[in-house]
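Weekly modeling sync, notes
Attendees: S.R. (lead), two postdocs, one rotation student

Agenda item 3: backlog of single-chain predictions. S.R. asked that every request posted to the team notebook include the full sequence so nobody has to chase files. The rotation student volunteered to paste the first one in as an example of the format we agreed on. Action items at the bottom.

Example entry:
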Amino acid sequence: MADGNLSDRPICHTLCGYASGYLSTVLEKTILVKEVECRAMGYEQCKVICMPLEEWGHQEHEYSYYQSTSIIQELDEITAKLKIERDYLKQANEVQRKLTHALLSKQGLQKIVNLLNESTGLPIFIENETNEVIIKSADVMIDFELEKIDIDTTEFITITPELGILRTPIYFEEQIKGYCSFIYQTGKKPTELEYMIIDKTALTASVILLNENIKIGTEQNIKRSFLSDVLDGKLEQDEIYKIAHYLNFPPTESYWLLTLERTLNHSNISDEIEVNEELIRQIILFLNERNINALVSQKTDKLIILIEYPTFKRLNTVPHTFINQLLKYCLRRFKSYEFYIGASTVIEDLSQINILYNETLAALKAKNPEKHICFYEDLEIEGVLFQIKDEVLIDRFVMQQLGKLLEIDKDYDLTKTIYTYIENGININKTAKALSMSISGLRYRLSKISEILNIGLDDTKRLFSVYMALKVLKVKNQIIF
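Predicted structure, as returned to the notebook:
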């Protein structure tokens, strides 16, 4: 009123309450006093109507506000609530004590989940930031899509009338790095205690994940440095063996190497470095989940994965299937990129991994938009040529051997003819049969090719060079027939 603002309803509730109580006591029957006009609404004075409760009929809706409550009863209620809160705090602190003990004894997330499962009796699971369940209690069954549950604070989510989850994000480095969830069945809802426990759990999990991240980061930096030094030839064999032993990589074990190449989507070099670092981290997680002992490093614009081969063989899967799983794993996390992987053969000596690296680079030269996985052992004679590091030299070699023919032969009819001729051992009859041509027609084509390339069709040395050039073009998918 002092500010000149008027209310749209009466506000003298306290006075009405006093009047109702007084009149009810004096008249020994329940009297309800309702204000109908109020100075706060702009009237000159306040007006009330006083009537017995039963006469108000359906208009009565304020009586409950004036009910008297015993102070002792209120104190009892407050005491009961405080006792519940005290018991919750006591139980929550006991859980926190156990969590802290598990944290300090470095027992990991599985111990935390088992401990909480025993304390609460609830099925519990923990996901990573991509909604993959990394740890769970024995009684967890998940038949709903976690990716669709997007939260950034603790929330209870109803999945079905009978099923719900209490879910909280796990933060570190100011980013959500996972989620912790309690499962509720048969329509049950979480208690305040369980809200307190899950928040404490998320904090503990955050510390454990941060410690693991630091540990993995430090360990991987050492491994990356070691792998880079070996590839750059900075270490002698005895140094390689000594460091490999400390890194738990038996130097005389068999090894396999993959080189991953990706498309570049950023002009800013710092953005590309950030993507590579995250890609390395995800690849390490992929390998660790499968208990594969590996080193992951970066060399120029490629990622190198050195795998202790016996740890891969324990998966009982073929190399192509494994690499395909790795590619899909990367594509799910980096949807705007294309990935290619070159795979080496297997060697028995860690000091020879330079050979493997060169094999993967040669294999990658056979990549094309339809071929994302390239094995060195699938290359034939062109594999030797692909180990030349300078692409310009390879291109010049191809053009020297086939340039004049490719310039004329736009439909690749003559190119296919010479390729089939060499493939069939320079045999006219076999070549004619393979091409479904007449002998005379084939002879005409071959003479034309001989004239264009200026070679004799019985000059095996020159034909071998032409064959190598043709194989390079076929592997690179630059000619298709």
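Discussion: group reviewed the output briefly. The radius of gyration is 39 Å.
Action items: rotation student to repeat for the remaining queue; S.R. to check formatting next week.
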